[in-house]
Each structure stands twice: as structure tokens, then as C-alpha cells.
């Protein structure tokens, strides 16, 4: 077999079928007819002299060989997507401003490296970052694209679920050495907590996930997630944070990670009418690639 001569369309057909789970769904995703897709997969199997799928009626199941090839096909698919996005970014006529709104934590700790990539790939685009938790930014046209942790319900918004993220509760090593490391959930009542926003709302969230603390445990309050996180790093109490962000500073420790663990979605949202704008669509796709 000669992998150098393998037709990318055949690999793309294999990748779509493996990920969609059926020929019909893959054909819809690629805009092909089902017989055409089936012929492309058959041609790939002939070229490689390998059986990639086991066929049982209308059901296709990846063989062990197919699962191994899928890993490499995904790498190639990602490279093709990056090439396409880079080429799109160099086209003329893409100049202008794209406004991205995200939470203060995402804006500070995640967006800078992503915006740098957007600027490298699409130098004609100017990016405005709006640090806000308000989904109304899109409805009021104050922003073009939003990164949010809840799915918007408004019918004029287009949303794509990118991934699930994990969060834990943290305190600085200096705080824990001074106040002691909690061993049980009951021990948490003896500690200071940092509220992200109004105490009644934060207290409701905490008790809702089984943390038995009182409103009086919240000794620091801030609507700004970055400010609250800096308070935590300074040794002023316990605070929740995204696990990837919290991995950056070395002086923090997870609190009872076997008990205190939350997951939450990352949604990328834009307005239905402007989703077809080449400039906004390019930035939307770049954000989807990096945030995924």
C-alpha cells in the first residue's frame, strides 16, 4: 500500500463515517450521496488493503485496524482544518472588527493566546474583547460572539457546544498551613470562603452541591472572578476555579477533590443573522478550534 497516494476525500469519508456512526449521517454531513460515500470507503480499504469496518446489515463497526487509523485520520483532519482557516484568514475583504465577549476569567486566562492566534491567521481583523457574563451582549448587538457556560434559549442565537470542563475548590498553601487542611465536608464549616457575587446566590450554589457552610463563612465577596481568584491566591480563603486555570499557579491546593468536583459546558454563541458573515464565521471557527 502507498499512503502517499491515498486520496484525502477517501480519508475524509472514513473519518466522517467513523465519527457520525453511520453512512447516512456521514453522507449528510459531507453533502454526498450514501452510495458515493460507500464507494469512497471501499476504495480506501482497497488502497490500504485493510478492512476498516465490519458490516452487519446497515450497521458499521470499526475494526481494530480502523480504530488505529482513525487516530491518524483525526490528526490529518485537524491539520486540514487549520490550513483552511489560515488560508481563509489571508483573504482580502475580511477587514473589520469582531467583538468577542467572555467571562472575566476566560478573558484574562484563556483568550489572550487565542486572540494572538486569530491575529496571526487573520491579520486584517481587529479583535475587541468584552469581559462580561451577560448573554444580553449578543441580543443588544454589543458583541458578535460569546463564550458562555450556559446554553442561550433565544431563537435568534446560534450555539455550539464545544466541551465539558472541570472545576474544583482551591486554597493557597499559606492559608491551609495557617488554618489547617480540611479532611471532611464538615471541616469546611471552619474555613473562610470567597463569594463570586452576592452571598445568597453563592451560598445557594454551595449548599446545592452538598457543601455544608453558612452565609457567615463568606468573608470575601467579589463579582469579578479574576479579583476573587487573586484573593484566593493571596491566602484569604477557599474559592472555586476551572481546573486548567488553577493549574497555572503552583502555590494552590485542591480542597477535598474526591468530594468537591463540578463539571460545566462551554458554549460558543453568535447571532443567527451574522453567523454567515465571512469575518465573524472565521473567528467563530478559530475560537471553536482552540477552545475545544
UniProtKB/TrEMBL annotation:
Coiled coil (UniProt feature): none
GO biological process: DNA-templated transcription
Keywords recorded for this protein, A-Z: DNA-binding, Transcription, Transcription regulation
Single Gene Ontology MF annotation: DNA-binding transcription factor activity
The keyword Transit peptide is assigned to this record: no
Top-level division of the source organism's lineage: Bacteria
Pfam families the UniProt entry points to: HTH_1, LysR_substrate
TM stretches of this protein: none
The HTH lysR-type domain, residue ranges: 6-63
Family: Belongs to the LysR transcriptional regulatory family.
Protein known as: LysR family transcriptional regulator
UniProt source species: Sulfitobacter geojensis
